Predict the structure.
Amino acid sequence: MHNLVIDIGNTNSKIAVFKSRTLVHFESQTVLDSRRIAELLEMFKVSSSTVSTVNEDQAAVIALLKAQTHYIEFSTRINPGIKNHYKTISTLGLDRWAEVIAAQRYYPGVAVFMIDAGTCITYDLLSSEAEYFGGSISLGIKMRFQALNHYTGRLPLVEWKNEEIAIPEGSDTHHAIQNGVLQGVVNEVEGFIAGQFRKDNKVIVLITGGDAPFFMNQLKGCNFANQVYHEPYLVLKGLNEVIAFEYVQKN
């Protein structure tokens, strides 16, 4: 039995096929292509599917999944045993909730602090007692560069690729912007993690999202580095756990 899960974000759509808990296929698309989805459904003989999306305009893909698979409509109402104290559950991002579900299913009995470094940077904690109170939402790296350009008269828009691991010295305006944005966001992430370790030094930190490799490199020298892990498929794993949970509930 194969499951197909899709995480439609602000920038890219991530598609994964799982056999039980084993990831057997992954790809990323800038524009979600229903023809490619149909190919994957046939290729892997997919039986179940679900989608997490920030974009409501995905009717064609969802109609295809409903027609050819057992489609599970993912929402924050699906809860495999997490004590959710979030006050506005209807506005909780589905990607964040999928990450919390993944943490609960993969790390039972352990406090897990999740950092999703994408268009925005989100911080969420699931306690060792599987309690979720919410978290924080901050500007992503590229958004910070864009804001400096947009809200000033003379500062240029500085392009940055996350393959550029090192933070440059601010020896000119271009590099001063890079240094300020990158060092500032690293200090922010370090500060959030340090705050969690002051409360619980056994907490596990999972970093996901497109800019995760940059942060993993910057955090190498920290005294908590051995408890920080790169988890590139965290949302997708959570979506796959939703399918497994719904299957158990109905059988």
About this structure: The first strand starts at residue 2 and ends at 8. The longest helix spans residues 173-199.
